[in-house]
């Protein structure tokens, strides 16, 4: 293993956030191409099933994480449940911040149709979203965006750029028609009752 | 966010104590700041002010109709201003003109938009199940370097010299060039008495024409003295209008009886 590979390995071990190839090249006084080769060598060694530490690509950079098989043991050490699932409301809020960020709470509330205060507060606490300045509109609401921790948690190699296109989640024409029909049904029932 | 009331002493709305995110203090100060546009009204949670007021009424255990209605009027005005601020007029018109079909189209549009993000959320949910692994936490902040303390000499005489400089009284300010002016009221008393002796009355403005402000003030005090003693009867038809000083009835005005020493006191005050 080359001297450069050792340096890259050490940098990734010390860093708490993923490091980009460009950053690694700058710190090691090397070229991106040589850093890529070093990373390939490391990825071979730190791979799921072969090592307790795994090299992962996330948020446009590279970083170490614990292996999946060691998740239960790690959970015991940090004294918290291994899986703290996100609620449906939290996931929806997160999706809106990820696709639209920087976005304000009123905008999130407009799309979801309910107040977003608690949802955003929970995501802030988990470190999945962070403040990103204030909007230049009435009331100057705080804007939010997703964090590097979000990209790592959801395995997004290039951050939000790795998210699938929103069009993939568009309703089919049949669903669209069903939605309209249901809306009319509700309206008729309401008229009948009144 | 908490709304706390510190005092429950007075009945008036103005000292309703508020503790909001954007403001802490009495209600009337908040009003003043909003009017002077020093606080963004859009950021003032009006519901919390109402809750604070209702809480206070509950704590008092009685309804003070006067303060309740005063509060209603103020809060209604605040609400109206805030609504106008948040909904510019042209948008309001659009809102009124919305037909049933347009409303339906808009609702469907919003539902479709929401479904899109709900789908994205489901996708994220499947990824999260796959990615529940542990990573290093954020690194602690680098320790700050110790503040640089300037080197100082341990010589106590240096301290002595410094404190000595601080304790030296500053030089006295020379005021000998300031001229002291005396404008005795008694002079005007004599002059106005003479005027009233030969005429039935005189116009105050004419009598003091050409005099400086201080002398005019002394002249006015003299008129008041004469009125008090019943020697003069000044009349002014309107505010800031001309003053006509007529001859008095001779009886003292219905006020504390003037004493001999008073004009002299005023002389001293005006000097």
Detailed description of the structure:
Chain A is an alpha+beta fold. Chain A folds into 2 domains: 3-71, Winged helix-like DNA-binding domain superfamily/Winged helix DNA-binding domain (Arc Repressor Mutant, subunit A, Orthogonal Bundle); 88-166, Winged helix-like DNA-binding domain superfamily/Winged helix DNA-binding domain (Arc Repressor Mutant, subunit A, Orthogonal Bundle). Chain A contains 9 helices and 5 strands; from the N terminus they run αααββααβααββαα. In chain A, the strands form 2 sheets. Chain A has a 3-stranded antiparallel β-sheet. In chain A, helix 1 packs across helix 3, helix 2 (21-28) packs across helix 3 and helix 5 (88-100) packs across helix 7. In chain B, the strands form 2 sheets. In chain B, strands 3-5-4 form a 3-stranded antiparallel β-sheet. The longest helix of chain B is centred in the middle third of the chain and has 31 residues, at 100-130. Chain B has 271 residues and is mainly α. The model of chain B is unreliable at 1-11 (pLDDT under 50). Chain B has helices at 27-35, 46-60, 65-86, 89-96, 100-130, 156-167, 185-198, 204-208, 213-228, 262-270, and strands spanning 17-19, 24-26, 201-203, 232-236, 243-247.
């Amino acid at each position: 293993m080359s001297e450069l590979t050792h340096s890259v390995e050490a940098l990734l071990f010390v860093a708490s956030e993923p490091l980009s190839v460009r950053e690694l090249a700058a710190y090691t006084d090397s070229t991106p191409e040589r850093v890529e080769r070093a990373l390939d060598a490391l990825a071979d060694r730190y791979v799921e099933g072969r090592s307790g530490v795994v090299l992962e690509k996330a948020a446009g950079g590279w970083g170490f994480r614990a292996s999946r098989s060691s998740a239960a043991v790690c959970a015991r050490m940090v004294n918290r449940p291994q899986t703290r699932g996100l609620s449906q409301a939290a996931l929806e809020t997160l999706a809106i911040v990820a696709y639209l960020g920087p976005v304000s709470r009123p905008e999130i509330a407009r799309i979801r149709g309910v107040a977003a205060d608690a949802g955003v507060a929970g995501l802030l606490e988990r470190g999945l979203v962070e403040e990103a300045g204030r909007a230049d509109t009435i009331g100057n609401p705080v804007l939010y965006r997703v964090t590097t921790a979000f990209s790592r948690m959801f395995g997004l190699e290039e951050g939000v750029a790795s998210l699938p296109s929103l069009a993939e989640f568009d309703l089919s024409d049949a669903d669209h028609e069903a939605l309209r029909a249901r809306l009319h049904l509700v309206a008729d029932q309401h008229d009948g009752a009144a | 966010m908490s709304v706390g009331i510190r005092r429950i002493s007075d009945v008036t709305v103005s000292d309703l104590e508020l503790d909001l995110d954007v403001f802490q203090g009495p209600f009337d100060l908040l009003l003043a700041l909003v009017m002077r546009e020093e606080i963004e009204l859009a950021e003032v949670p009006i519901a919390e002010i109402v809750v604070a007021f209702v809480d206070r009424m509950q704590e008092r255990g009685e309804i003070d109709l006067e303060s309740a209605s005063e509060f209603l009027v103020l809060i209604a005005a605040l609400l109206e201003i805030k609504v106008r601020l948040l909904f510019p007029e042209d948008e309001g018109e659009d809102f009124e003109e919305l037909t049933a079909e347009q409303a339906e189209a808009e609702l469907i549009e919003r539902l479709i938009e929401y479904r899109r993000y709900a789908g994205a959320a489901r996708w994220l949910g499947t990824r999260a199940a796959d990615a529940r692994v542990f990573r290093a936490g954020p690194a602690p902040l680098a320790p700050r370097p110790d503040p640089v303390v300037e080197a100082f000499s341990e010589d106590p005489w240096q301290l002595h010299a410094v404190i000595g400089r601080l304790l030296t009284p500053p030089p006295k300010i020379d005021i000998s060039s300031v001229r002291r002016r005396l404008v005795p009221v008694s002079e005007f008393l004599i002059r106005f008495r003479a005027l009233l002796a030969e005429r039935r009355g005189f116009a105050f403005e004419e009598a003091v024409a050409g005099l400086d402000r201080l002398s005019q003030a002394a002249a006015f005090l003299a008129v008041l003295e004469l009125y008090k003693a019943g020697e003069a009867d000044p009349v002014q038809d309107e505010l800031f209008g001309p003053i006509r000083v007529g001859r008095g009835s001779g009886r003292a005005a219905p006020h504390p009886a003037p004493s001999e020493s008073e004009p002299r006191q005023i002389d001293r005050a005006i000097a």
